[in-house]
Every structure is written in C-alpha cells, then in structure tokens.
Amino acid sequence: MAVTLRDVASHAGVSPRTVSNVVNGFDHVSPAMRAKVQAALDELHYEPNLLARSLRRGRTGIINFFIPKIASPYFAELAHEVVELAGRRGYTVLIDETGGSRARERALLDVAARSRWVDGVLLNPLGLDSRALAGLRASSFPIVLLGERTGRATHDHVGVDNVAAAREATEHLIDAGRRRIGAVGGDAGRSDATSRLRLRGHQSALRAARLPVEDGLYGRAPDYTRGQAALAVRSMLATDDPPDGLVCFAAEIATGALHELNAQGVKVPQDISVVTFDHVEECRFGSPSLTSVGPDKADIAESALGMLVERIAGLDAEPRDVHVEHELVVRSSTSTAAHAPV
Question: Do domains 5-48 and 162-295 have the same CATH topology?
Fold first, then answer.
C-alpha cells in the first residue's frame, strides 16, 4: 500500500496539514518541524502522488499523440520529434495508433476528452472527415490536427502543401529529361486525401509540360506498404511503354519500388529516376540514396505543440491553419553526381 500524508502525520505526531506544508515546500514551517516531518517522510519512503497533485491544479502535463501507423518511418520520426520537443516544454507524450480507422480515431478522442488524464491531443486523422471533426468543435478540449485538411477549419491544423510539393518533385524529373513519369501512392480516393492531393500536383506538372497523363502510369499501394508498392511497380514495368521516372508518395513505397526495380535489373537513376516524399533516414542511407521532398518534421512538431500548449493555456481564438514549408533534397536516385547529405 502507498504511504499517505496521514500515515506520515501519525508517524511524526503532527497534523496532515503540517505534512502537506512540508511536502509542498511552504515557508511558514519552522526548521525544527520541517526536519521532524522530513525524517518521517524518509523513514516511511513516502512518494508524492504527482498525478493527483496535477489534477488538483487542473493540468496533468500529459498529451496524447494519435497517429495512423507507428511502424511508418515518417510517423515514427515525427513522433520522436514531438516527444523531444514536448519534453523541453515539460510535457509527457502518450502515443497510440489509429490505423486510419474512423471508429478508432473517434473512440480515442472521446476517451481523451472525457478523461482528466491528458491536457490535449495531437491527431493525424485519416478516417474522420471535416464534418465529423466539426462535431468536436463544441468541446473545449484542446485538439490540434496534423496532415490533410480538405474542409472548413474547425480546429487548429498544421500541414504541408502536398499539391505544390508533388508538382515540384515531378518538375525535378522533367528537368532531368524524363518524359514518361509515373507515380505510386495510395488509392487516392475520398478517404485518402494525401494521395489525392499529391496525385493532383503530380499530374498538373505533367500537363503543364505536355507529357502523358495515363491511368497506367499510376500504381496503387492502398496501405502504403513496401510489398504493395513492389507489385505496383512490377505491373508498370510489364507494360509495352514503362515509365522512365517515378514519384513515390511515401518512403515505404519508394523502398518497395527500389526493391522491385533492382529485382528486374532496372538501374536507378540511369533507367528510371525516383523521387519520394518524406525526409526519413531510409532516404539518406538507401542504395541508391533517395531524392526526397517534404517538410522538416521538427517544424511540424514545433508548430503543432506550440498551438496545443496555447489552447491548453486557454487561448480563445479562431482555428488557425499553418502550412509548413517543404524542400526538395537531391540525392543519387535522380542524379549520379548527387551525394546523400550526412
């Protein structure tokens, strides 16, 4: 059984109020009384209930971070940045995986909002759309969204301009002399806003350059897995007119694509140049290293945490929409002269 303040008071022969004053460091306790109570605390190995103390003060110092897939390199590295930066602000982060399920996203949000265990939530939603998220607006519980926002803002949001980023990635391949450029991503349907926006940017760059936009030049890997990506690339290579460039919509997809290209004896970048989204460690240390486009994950974490902390502190303002800048980092998968930064 945990030792209570009452146990310590009985052991020291003082009131529970006196013990509380010592534990909380109040000044109006005589040195002799403080020494007496401290001796009792030490003898009984008393440990304060920090959570209960935080709840009485209205804050726990704990936030939730709900992400679609913990095993994804991008989300794993983003979670690392969030944990690091939150720690510097005095917060502990509890991470859970949604699998992109609408029901699970809603259930986790409901638990967090009803409980007194967390101060706020960072959420990267895939299942919940803007209408469903709007229903949470009535709650004063702090929530900051990451990823795509395709509807009217109802909560603070941090994201990247995926259309512009995909356009830049495709233009990089066009500038390198590629003329039949494919892409590999998710299903790009209603529930996959990320791939839908990236496909829009990719195809807009092709149209602007008067290059072919064909169904056969888009390979689908619905769950963003390496295996699905490899199969999609295999199908593209089996056509009479295969692509000479690929834009991959996630690092896992690019890894699967490279595996299949290598298995088929296709040289990168000599035969096919490859660009991927997300600056993750796999991009730097793959063979070849992968040219990548995307935002700085530390910038995303800093922006999202900053807004969440302000909401936790009681900021009353209209929902804010922040776009983090992206950049293209050229590596060996598009240029034999490029070297991966270390």
Answer: no
